[in-house]
Amino acid sequence: MIAARNLTKAYGAKRVVDDVSLDIPRGGITSVIGPNGAGKSTLLALLSRLLPPTSGSVHVDELDVATAPGDVLARRLSILRQDNHMTARLTVRELVEFGRFPHSKGRLSTEDAQRVDEAIRYLGLEDLSDRFIDEMSGGQRQRAFVAMVLSQDTDYLLMDEPLNSLDMRHAAETMKLIRKIADELDKSFVLVLHDINFASHYSDRIVAMREGAVITHGTPDEIMQTGVLREIFEIDIPIHELDGRRIGLFYR
Amino acid sequence: MTASPDPTRRRAPLLLLAMSALVVLAAIGFMTLGAKGSWSFVLPFRGTKLAAMALVAYAVSVSTILFQTITTNRILTPSIMGLDALYVLIQTTIMFALGSSATAALPHSALFLAQVTVMIGFSAAVYAWLFSGRSQSLHLVALVGLVLGVLFNSLSSLLHRVMAPNEFVILQDRLFANFNTVDTSVLAIAALAVLAVSAYGASKLRTFDVLHLGRESAIALGVDYRKTVFQVLIIVATLVSVSTALVGPTMFFGLLVASITYRISASEKHAVLLPLATLTGMLLLIGGQLVLERLFAFDTALSIVIEFAGGIAFILMVLRSASR
Q: What digits encode the pLDDT tens for the residues A57-75?
């Protein structure tokens, strides 16, 4: 379980994340939704110690994120951000090998090499494994980074807008893949998503944020209600049911 | 399925071997070509120069690559941190306070040690001050270094203005990178300092590789980012201080070496990059000195030629990144 207590991040007087207390249980997919500037990405950065909180605490199982050694935490929790600009020119395999760094400290054992191969195969990147990252399309690059965090082999995987700048096909494929990893490999995902319908279709839990605070959380069926969504996004979204899934039509 | 490195990556040892051979050839050429008179004079005389060039090539190349790794920026060099300007200010202050004859009488090794200590102490203080805060922003560190550099330069030029013209000429001569006037006792101290930080950094090469991915990925992969970057900054400060105190400031040499290294290197691992950069730097310095001395019978200003070439390379890199 990831447990946040009274978590606050303030820049001057502006509280980007404001007194958030939240339990994210082990297993399945938890999606964080909310309008721009709600503090979703900041919350994810606080949970994964990329940012130090102004006050409050985060525990991942028994580990206190503020004090646990970096490499211990890196074997428990991984994070993928939206912007993965690199100066180094790496091949897919080299990138995925970095995922083993918390385990191997850079000296790959045969087990590490196996994990790297598994991750590459799982993402269907075998044919691309010697290609350079900067020569690949956005969708392929996204898969390479997912392979890297997968080879890190952590219980918890945090992803900040994994669907950002992916087309429909790649977005759907990525979500299917995340669902598959969560189910088959028993991993827990926390995703920041912009599209409420992806959140509704693929997650087990949805956490809704607005103005730095968690205003509600629950199952997709509980959150995907016109009244609840109005409170989050301040617009009226009619909800339809299609094949047992709730879909919000926010296009008009 | 076993991990098989792709063909381009297997080139790395071959390339290192070829570069080493070139460097050895250049060194032999430098030591022997055009020698007139007794070997017992020529060899130690040229040997000191050769050792100085090798040491400076190592210090400048390694510090530039490491600095570019932590800043994830390939057109920055550690000279942005204001250490060169501090060196000029120290030299100017000594000359101003003591005068040229008393300065010339100072023991070289003590002067060298004092300079290096002040420079490393200054960097450590600035880094500790800026990097222990919440921001942990390397850009802030670089910016403050830049501003302090400007301050040091202004102080130096103020002193230059009120200095006696003769003393100023002597000072100016000391401020150009120069391999001809290196003292052997100073060289030994410099070599020890460089050896010490190298031994310190050698065990962390694989962690440096992770820093290539940027701050957030490095933290996500369990690297103690603040500690590691601080360590790298101290290593860089030591190398730059030693090299600057040894031969004077070099601005673009490191940049030239680093950009050639990335271009020819088949790997982005520091275990390959750093040796390759060192060899490239040595080849440029030793080979360049050899060509200048023997082909053009031109004995003084290799640093000017290299800085000129490095400056052009820098402008090309800026133009190319702007057109992207």
A: 999 999 999 999 989 999 9
Q: Taking CB atoms and an 8 Å cutoff, what residues of chain B touch A113?
A: 2-3
A72 touches chain B (CB under 8 A): yes
Cα(A183)–Cα(A179) distance, integer angstroms:
6
User: Does B222 contact A70 at a Cβ distance shorter than 8 Å?
Assistant: yes
* pLDDT per position as a tens digit, B22-66: 999 988 888 888 777 788 888 888 888 899 889 999 999 999 999
Distance CA B54, CA B70 (A): 24
Full-prediction pTM beyond 0.90? no
CA triple B22-B24-B28, angle to 5 deg: 115
Using alpha carbons only, what angle is made at residue A211 by residues A209 and A216, rounded to the nearest 5 degrees?
30
What's the rounded Cα separation, in Å, for the pair A140 and B31?
54
Digit-coded pLDDT (tens) for B290-313:
888 777 766 556 777 777 778 888
Residues in B touching A108 (Cβ below 8 Å): 3
**Complex-level ipTM:** 0.88
* Closest by CA position to B54, among listed B24, B82, B33: B24
Among chain A residues, the shortest Cα distance to B134 is held by: A52
Q: How many CB pairs under 8 A join A and B?
A: 79
- Decide if pLDDT at B168 tops 90: no
Alpha carbon of A236: minimum distance to chain B alpha carbons (Å): 37
